[in-house]
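User: Run a structure prediction on this.
Assistant: Running it now.
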Amino acid sequence: MMFGFVKENMINSTSYKILKAAFLTGCFFFAACENDPKLIEAMTNNKVMVEEGKNIETLISEGSRIKAKLKSPYMLRYVADTVYDEFPKTLKVDFYDADGKINRTWGKSKSL
């Protein structure tokens, strides 16, 4: 029985040493981290990115059938917290029926 007791103490002693080393290592990492507040603010600032597209033509389909065709000479896509598109010049959308014929048209188009 004495050997089992010694073996159990050795395991507890080894676990204690590993736990102590992990705790001290963790404290070292937390104490070693120091960041410049200006750098953190610059990295976390909300930035709005703008993508620009010219002569845009998009086909919208559902179930392998074309439902709409969007055409515009100029598009701006804003990427921030929410992504949205803007068509500052003109926009024309042709909607198609089940037979693939233009059902109705939406928008103003001068040069499209």
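Strands lie at 49-62, 65-79, 83-86, 91-96, 102-108.
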